Amino acid sequence: MHINKVVIIGSGPAAYTAAIYAARANLTPIVYEGFFSGVAGGQLMTTTEVENFPGFPQGIFGPDLMINFKAQAERFGTVVVPEDVVSVDFSKTPFKITAKKEIYAHTVIIATGATANRLYVPGTNDEEFWQKGVTACAVCDGAAPIFRNKDLYVFGGGDTAVEEAIFLTKFASKVFLVHRRDELRASKIMSEKALSHPKIEVVWNSVLVSVEGDNVVKSVTLENTITKEKTTREAGGVFFAIGHTPNTKFLDGQVDLLSNGYIKTVAGSSKTNIPGVFAAGDVQDHIYRQAITAAGSGCMAALDAERWLSEQGIH
Ligand SMILES: Cc1cc2nc3c(=O)[nH]c(=O)nc-3n(C[C@H](O)[C@H](O)[C@H](O)COP(=O)(O)OP(=O)(O)OC[C@H]3O[C@@H](n4cnc5c(N)ncnc54)[C@H](O)[C@@H]3O)c2cc1C
Q1: Do residues 168 and 138 lie in contact, with contact meaning Cβ atoms separated by under 8 Å?
Q2: What is the pTM of this model?
Q3: Is 151 one of the catalytic residues?
Q4: How far apart are CA 253 and CA 182, in angstroms?
Q5: Ligand 1 in contact with 158 (CB < 6 A)?
Q6: Whether 50 contacts 59, CB under 8 Å
Q7: Does residue 299 carry a catalytic annotation?
Q8: Which single residue of 29, 30, 179, 248 could bond 157 by disulfide (Cβ 3.0 to 4.6 Å)?
Protein backbone atom coordinates (compact mmCIF):
# COMPACT_ATOMS: atom_id res chain seq x y z
CA MET A 1 0.00 0.00 0.00
CA HIS A 2 1.37 3.40 -0.98
CA ILE A 3 1.21 5.95 1.83
CA ASN A 4 1.42 9.63 0.88
CA LYS A 5 3.27 11.94 3.18
CA VAL A 6 0.82 14.85 2.91
CA VAL A 7 -2.70 15.01 1.51
CA ILE A 8 -4.29 18.45 1.36
CA ILE A 9 -8.06 18.82 1.04
CA GLY A 10 -9.22 22.12 -0.50
CA SER A 11 -8.01 24.55 -3.13
CA GLY A 12 -8.09 28.10 -1.80
CA PRO A 13 -5.15 30.22 -0.62
CA ALA A 14 -4.67 28.00 2.47
CA ALA A 15 -4.51 24.72 0.52
CA TYR A 16 -2.18 25.99 -2.19
CA THR A 17 0.14 27.76 0.24
CA ALA A 18 0.37 24.54 2.25
CA ALA A 19 1.09 22.71 -1.02
CA ILE A 20 3.86 25.16 -2.04
CA TYR A 21 5.62 24.70 1.32
CA ALA A 22 5.10 20.93 1.43
CA ALA A 23 6.23 20.47 -2.17
CA ARG A 24 9.36 22.55 -1.64
CA ALA A 25 10.11 20.33 1.37
CA ASN A 26 10.00 17.31 -1.01
CA LEU A 27 6.84 15.91 0.58
CA THR A 28 5.11 15.52 -2.83
CA PRO A 29 1.68 16.68 -1.63
CA ILE A 30 -1.58 15.59 -3.20
CA VAL A 31 -4.22 18.33 -3.35
CA TYR A 32 -7.89 17.43 -3.69
CA GLU A 33 -9.21 20.66 -5.16
CA GLY A 34 -12.91 19.78 -5.06
CA PHE A 35 -15.45 19.55 -7.82
CA PHE A 36 -19.06 19.89 -6.61
CA SER A 37 -18.11 21.05 -3.11
CA GLY A 38 -17.44 24.65 -4.11
CA VAL A 39 -15.51 26.38 -6.85
CA ALA A 40 -12.11 24.77 -7.41
CA GLY A 41 -9.72 27.55 -6.46
CA GLY A 42 -11.90 28.69 -3.59
CA GLN A 43 -13.88 31.79 -2.78
CA LEU A 44 -11.64 34.19 -4.71
CA MET A 45 -12.78 32.52 -7.93
CA THR A 46 -16.15 34.20 -7.32
CA THR A 47 -14.86 37.75 -7.06
CA THR A 48 -13.36 40.31 -9.40
CA GLU A 49 -10.62 42.66 -8.17
CA VAL A 50 -8.60 41.72 -5.07
CA GLU A 51 -6.93 44.89 -3.85
CA ASN A 52 -5.62 43.88 -0.43
CA PHE A 53 -3.42 40.87 -1.22
CA PRO A 54 0.16 42.07 -0.69
CA GLY A 55 2.45 42.07 -3.72
CA PHE A 56 -0.07 43.37 -6.23
CA PRO A 57 -0.01 47.18 -5.99
CA GLN A 58 -2.49 47.53 -8.87
CA GLY A 59 -4.74 44.75 -7.50
CA ILE A 60 -5.29 41.40 -9.18
CA PHE A 61 -8.34 39.63 -10.55
CA GLY A 62 -9.39 36.93 -8.00
CA PRO A 63 -9.36 33.99 -10.46
CA ASP A 64 -5.93 35.09 -11.83
CA LEU A 65 -4.53 35.12 -8.30
CA MET A 66 -5.76 31.58 -7.73
CA ILE A 67 -4.38 30.36 -11.09
CA ASN A 68 -1.01 31.71 -9.91
CA PHE A 69 -1.31 29.97 -6.54
CA LYS A 70 -2.02 26.65 -8.28
CA ALA A 71 0.76 27.06 -10.86
CA GLN A 72 3.26 27.84 -8.10
CA ALA A 73 2.23 24.70 -6.18
CA GLU A 74 2.44 22.54 -9.32
CA ARG A 75 5.83 23.96 -10.23
CA PHE A 76 7.31 22.22 -7.20
CA GLY A 77 5.61 18.88 -7.84
CA THR A 78 2.18 19.12 -6.21
CA VAL A 79 -0.27 16.66 -7.71
CA VAL A 80 -3.74 18.23 -8.07
CA VAL A 81 -6.78 15.94 -8.19
CA PRO A 82 -10.01 17.56 -9.42
CA GLU A 83 -12.28 15.60 -7.08
CA ASP A 84 -14.20 16.05 -3.85
CA VAL A 85 -13.14 14.18 -0.77
CA VAL A 86 -16.34 12.49 0.35
CA SER A 87 -15.13 10.90 3.59
CA VAL A 88 -12.08 10.39 5.76
CA ASP A 89 -11.09 7.81 8.34
CA PHE A 90 -8.90 9.31 11.03
CA SER A 91 -9.55 6.53 13.55
CA LYS A 92 -6.23 4.85 12.75
CA THR A 93 -3.00 5.52 10.88
CA PRO A 94 -2.29 5.75 8.04
CA PHE A 95 -5.31 8.00 7.50
CA LYS A 96 -7.75 6.96 4.78
CA ILE A 97 -9.08 9.63 2.40
CA THR A 98 -11.89 8.69 0.06
CA ALA A 99 -12.63 10.57 -3.16
CA LYS A 100 -13.39 8.55 -6.33
CA LYS A 101 -10.74 6.17 -4.99
CA GLU A 102 -9.27 5.63 -1.55
CA ILE A 103 -5.79 6.84 -0.75
CA TYR A 104 -3.72 6.79 2.41
CA ALA A 105 -1.61 9.45 4.10
CA HIS A 106 0.63 9.98 7.09
CA THR A 107 -0.65 13.57 7.47
CA VAL A 108 -3.72 15.43 6.26
CA ILE A 109 -4.23 19.18 5.97
CA ILE A 110 -7.88 20.24 5.89
CA ALA A 111 -8.31 23.55 4.02
CA THR A 112 -11.85 23.31 2.69
CA GLY A 113 -12.79 26.88 3.54
CA ALA A 114 -16.20 28.26 4.32
CA THR A 115 -19.12 29.39 2.26
CA ALA A 116 -20.51 32.88 2.82
CA ASN A 117 -24.24 32.62 3.39
CA ARG A 118 -26.29 34.55 0.86
CA LEU A 119 -29.90 35.56 0.45
CA TYR A 120 -31.30 34.31 -2.82
CA VAL A 121 -33.99 36.73 -3.98
CA PRO A 122 -34.55 38.18 -7.47
CA GLY A 123 -31.54 40.30 -8.42
CA THR A 124 -28.97 38.68 -6.12
CA ASN A 125 -28.06 35.62 -8.20
CA ASP A 126 -24.75 35.01 -9.97
CA GLU A 127 -26.02 36.00 -13.40
CA GLU A 128 -27.76 39.09 -11.95
CA PHE A 129 -26.14 41.61 -9.57
CA TRP A 130 -23.88 39.25 -7.58
CA GLN A 131 -20.50 41.01 -7.59
CA LYS A 132 -22.08 43.96 -9.41
CA GLY A 133 -23.08 45.64 -6.18
CA VAL A 134 -24.22 42.56 -4.25
CA THR A 135 -21.55 40.93 -2.11
CA ALA A 136 -20.98 39.00 1.09
CA CYS A 137 -17.75 40.63 2.24
CA ALA A 138 -17.67 44.30 3.24
CA VAL A 139 -14.01 44.20 4.27
CA CYS A 140 -13.07 42.75 0.86
CA ASP A 141 -15.25 44.85 -1.40
CA GLY A 142 -16.41 47.91 0.56
CA ALA A 143 -13.62 50.20 -0.63
CA ALA A 144 -14.43 49.64 -4.32
CA PRO A 145 -15.29 52.82 -6.24
CA ILE A 146 -18.85 51.66 -7.04
CA PHE A 147 -19.77 51.90 -3.35
CA ARG A 148 -18.37 55.39 -2.71
CA ASN A 149 -20.83 58.03 -1.49
CA LYS A 150 -23.82 55.76 -1.99
CA ASP A 151 -26.55 54.46 0.28
CA LEU A 152 -25.42 50.94 1.21
CA TYR A 153 -27.61 48.21 2.67
CA VAL A 154 -26.25 45.61 5.10
CA PHE A 155 -28.43 42.59 5.90
CA GLY A 156 -27.97 40.90 9.26
CA GLY A 157 -28.23 41.63 12.94
CA GLY A 158 -25.21 40.07 14.65
CA ASP A 159 -21.80 41.44 15.61
CA THR A 160 -20.42 40.87 12.10
CA ALA A 161 -23.27 42.80 10.53
CA VAL A 162 -22.65 45.74 12.87
CA GLU A 163 -18.89 45.60 12.26
CA GLU A 164 -19.44 45.58 8.51
CA ALA A 165 -21.93 48.45 8.72
CA ILE A 166 -19.45 50.53 10.73
CA PHE A 167 -16.65 49.70 8.28
CA LEU A 168 -18.81 50.80 5.35
CA THR A 169 -19.53 54.21 6.90
CA LYS A 170 -15.99 55.16 5.75
CA PHE A 171 -17.14 55.05 2.14
CA ALA A 172 -20.94 55.32 2.11
CA SER A 173 -23.11 58.39 2.26
CA LYS A 174 -25.29 56.36 4.61
CA VAL A 175 -25.48 52.73 5.76
CA PHE A 176 -28.83 51.05 6.37
CA LEU A 177 -28.63 47.98 8.58
CA VAL A 178 -31.65 45.86 7.75
CA HIS A 179 -32.77 43.37 10.38
CA ARG A 180 -35.76 41.11 10.33
CA ARG A 181 -36.50 41.55 14.04
CA ASP A 182 -37.02 44.54 16.35
CA GLU A 183 -33.79 43.94 18.26
CA LEU A 184 -30.22 43.26 17.09
CA ARG A 185 -28.59 39.92 17.92
CA ALA A 186 -25.24 41.69 18.29
CA SER A 187 -23.63 42.17 21.72
CA LYS A 188 -24.87 45.15 23.73
CA ILE A 189 -21.73 47.18 23.09
CA MET A 190 -21.83 46.55 19.32
CA SER A 191 -25.57 47.28 19.17
CA GLU A 192 -25.02 50.59 20.93
CA LYS A 193 -22.26 51.48 18.48
CA ALA A 194 -24.60 50.88 15.56
CA LEU A 195 -27.55 52.68 17.09
CA SER A 196 -25.54 55.76 18.02
CA HIS A 197 -23.57 56.02 14.77
CA PRO A 198 -24.54 59.15 12.84
CA LYS A 199 -24.20 57.40 9.46
CA ILE A 200 -26.05 54.18 10.36
CA GLU A 201 -29.80 53.77 10.38
CA VAL A 202 -31.31 50.46 11.44
CA VAL A 203 -34.32 49.34 9.42
CA TRP A 204 -36.26 47.10 11.82
CA ASN A 205 -38.61 44.21 11.04
CA SER A 206 -37.65 44.15 7.39
CA VAL A 207 -36.44 41.65 4.82
CA LEU A 208 -35.01 41.91 1.33
CA VAL A 209 -37.49 41.14 -1.43
CA SER A 210 -35.48 42.03 -4.54
CA VAL A 211 -32.55 44.00 -5.93
CA GLU A 212 -32.90 46.10 -9.06
CA GLY A 213 -30.49 47.95 -11.34
CA ASP A 214 -29.00 48.27 -14.81
CA ASN A 215 -25.32 47.28 -15.00
CA VAL A 216 -24.98 47.67 -11.26
CA VAL A 217 -27.31 47.82 -8.27
CA LYS A 218 -29.57 50.87 -8.19
CA SER A 219 -32.27 49.99 -5.67
CA VAL A 220 -33.52 47.45 -3.14
CA THR A 221 -37.08 46.49 -2.33
CA LEU A 222 -37.75 45.70 1.32
CA GLU A 223 -40.79 44.24 3.01
CA ASN A 224 -41.88 45.09 6.52
CA THR A 225 -42.47 41.74 8.24
CA ILE A 226 -45.31 43.14 10.36
CA THR A 227 -47.24 45.45 8.01
CA LYS A 228 -46.21 43.53 4.83
CA GLU A 229 -45.70 46.93 3.20
CA LYS A 230 -43.09 46.94 0.41
CA THR A 231 -40.81 49.92 -0.25
CA THR A 232 -38.24 50.44 -2.98
CA ARG A 233 -35.23 52.54 -1.95
CA GLU A 234 -32.30 53.89 -3.90
CA ALA A 235 -29.21 51.76 -3.12
CA GLY A 236 -25.62 51.58 -4.34
CA GLY A 237 -24.72 48.27 -2.71
CA VAL A 238 -26.05 45.22 -0.90
CA PHE A 239 -23.91 43.44 1.69
CA PHE A 240 -24.94 40.12 3.22
CA ALA A 241 -23.65 39.67 6.76
CA ILE A 242 -25.58 36.57 7.71
CA GLY A 243 -22.71 34.29 8.57
CA HIS A 244 -20.59 31.65 6.93
CA THR A 245 -20.89 27.87 6.84
CA PRO A 246 -17.55 26.06 7.23
CA ASN A 247 -17.17 23.13 4.80
CA THR A 248 -16.78 20.28 7.28
CA LYS A 249 -19.65 17.92 6.46
CA PHE A 250 -17.39 15.27 4.89
CA LEU A 251 -15.48 15.00 8.19
CA ASP A 252 -18.55 13.39 9.78
CA GLY A 253 -17.59 14.34 13.33
CA GLN A 254 -14.09 12.85 13.21
CA VAL A 255 -12.33 16.10 14.11
CA ASP A 256 -13.35 18.30 17.05
CA LEU A 257 -15.32 21.36 15.99
CA LEU A 258 -16.15 24.55 17.86
CA SER A 259 -19.80 25.14 18.78
CA ASN A 260 -20.14 27.31 15.63
CA GLY A 261 -19.02 24.43 13.37
CA TYR A 262 -15.45 25.63 12.63
CA ILE A 263 -12.56 23.19 13.17
CA LYS A 264 -10.96 23.57 16.58
CA THR A 265 -7.19 24.08 16.41
CA VAL A 266 -4.63 24.42 19.17
CA ALA A 267 -4.00 28.16 19.63
CA GLY A 268 -1.01 29.41 17.66
CA SER A 269 -0.81 26.26 15.52
CA SER A 270 -2.75 24.32 12.89
CA LYS A 271 -3.04 21.18 15.05
CA THR A 272 -6.43 19.54 15.45
CA ASN A 273 -7.30 17.04 18.18
CA ILE A 274 -5.98 14.21 15.93
CA PRO A 275 -2.17 14.04 15.85
CA GLY A 276 -1.10 14.30 12.20
CA VAL A 277 -4.28 16.08 11.06
CA PHE A 278 -3.98 19.83 10.60
CA ALA A 279 -6.43 22.56 9.56
CA ALA A 280 -5.82 25.88 7.80
CA GLY A 281 -7.76 28.80 6.35
CA ASP A 282 -11.38 29.77 6.76
CA VAL A 283 -12.48 26.27 7.81
CA GLN A 284 -10.83 26.97 11.18
CA ASP A 285 -11.01 30.78 11.24
CA HIS A 286 -14.29 32.48 12.02
CA ILE A 287 -12.64 35.80 12.85
CA TYR A 288 -10.33 37.10 10.10
CA ARG A 289 -11.48 35.18 6.98
CA GLN A 290 -9.12 36.81 4.49
CA ALA A 291 -6.98 35.41 1.70
CA ILE A 292 -3.74 36.51 3.36
CA THR A 293 -4.63 34.98 6.74
CA ALA A 294 -5.72 31.77 4.98
CA ALA A 295 -2.41 31.66 3.11
CA GLY A 296 -0.47 32.31 6.35
CA SER A 297 -2.22 29.49 8.14
CA GLY A 298 -1.61 27.20 5.13
CA CYS A 299 2.10 27.84 5.59
CA MET A 300 1.77 27.00 9.31
CA ALA A 301 -0.03 23.74 8.50
CA ALA A 302 2.68 22.61 6.07
CA LEU A 303 5.43 23.40 8.57
CA ASP A 304 3.49 21.63 11.36
CA ALA A 305 3.00 18.58 9.11
CA GLU A 306 6.68 18.53 8.15
CA ARG A 307 7.74 18.68 11.82
CA TRP A 308 5.24 16.00 12.77
CA LEU A 309 6.55 13.66 10.04
CA SER A 310 10.10 14.24 11.16
CA GLU A 311 9.16 13.53 14.82
CA GLN A 312 7.66 10.21 13.64
CA GLY A 313 10.87 9.41 11.74
CA ILE A 314 9.08 9.57 8.37
CA HIS A 315 11.35 11.14 5.76
C1 LIG B 1 -17.07 37.41 -2.92
C2 LIG B 1 -15.83 37.33 -2.04
C3 LIG B 1 -14.84 38.27 -2.18
C4 LIG B 1 -13.70 38.20 -1.39
N5 LIG B 1 -12.73 39.14 -1.55
C6 LIG B 1 -11.62 39.07 -0.80
C7 LIG B 1 -10.59 40.05 -0.94
O8 LIG B 1 -10.69 40.97 -1.75
N9 LIG B 1 -9.48 39.91 -0.17
C10 LIG B 1 -9.35 38.91 0.76
O11 LIG B 1 -8.31 38.82 1.42
N12 LIG B 1 -10.32 37.99 0.94
C13 LIG B 1 -11.44 38.05 0.19
N14 LIG B 1 -12.45 37.14 0.38
C15 LIG B 1 -12.26 36.11 1.42
C16 LIG B 1 -11.32 35.01 0.88
O17 LIG B 1 -11.78 34.58 -0.37
C18 LIG B 1 -11.25 33.84 1.85
O19 LIG B 1 -10.85 34.30 3.12
C20 LIG B 1 -10.24 32.80 1.37
O21 LIG B 1 -10.54 32.37 0.05
C22 LIG B 1 -10.26 31.58 2.27
O23 LIG B 1 -9.37 30.67 1.74
P24 LIG B 1 -9.35 29.13 2.13
O25 LIG B 1 -8.09 28.63 1.57
O26 LIG B 1 -9.62 28.94 3.56
O27 LIG B 1 -10.56 28.42 1.36
P28 LIG B 1 -11.62 28.79 0.24
O29 LIG B 1 -11.19 29.91 -0.60
O30 LIG B 1 -12.94 28.85 0.93
O31 LIG B 1 -11.57 27.48 -0.69
C32 LIG B 1 -11.91 26.22 -0.23
C33 LIG B 1 -12.15 25.33 -1.44
O34 LIG B 1 -11.95 23.98 -1.01
C35 LIG B 1 -12.66 23.12 -1.86
N36 LIG B 1 -13.37 22.10 -1.07
C37 LIG B 1 -14.38 22.26 -0.18
N38 LIG B 1 -14.79 21.07 0.29
C39 LIG B 1 -14.02 20.13 -0.33
C40 LIG B 1 -13.97 18.70 -0.30
N41 LIG B 1 -14.78 17.97 0.47
N42 LIG B 1 -13.05 18.06 -1.07
C43 LIG B 1 -12.20 18.78 -1.87
N44 LIG B 1 -12.21 20.13 -1.96
C45 LIG B 1 -13.11 20.79 -1.20
C46 LIG B 1 -13.67 23.96 -2.64
O47 LIG B 1 -13.24 24.03 -3.98
C48 LIG B 1 -13.59 25.31 -1.97
O49 LIG B 1 -13.87 26.31 -2.88
C50 LIG B 1 -13.59 37.16 -0.41
C51 LIG B 1 -14.59 36.22 -0.27
C52 LIG B 1 -15.71 36.29 -1.09
C53 LIG B 1 -16.80 35.24 -0.93
Answers
A1: yes
A2: 0.85
A3: no
A4: 36
A5: no
A6: yes
A7: no
A8: 179
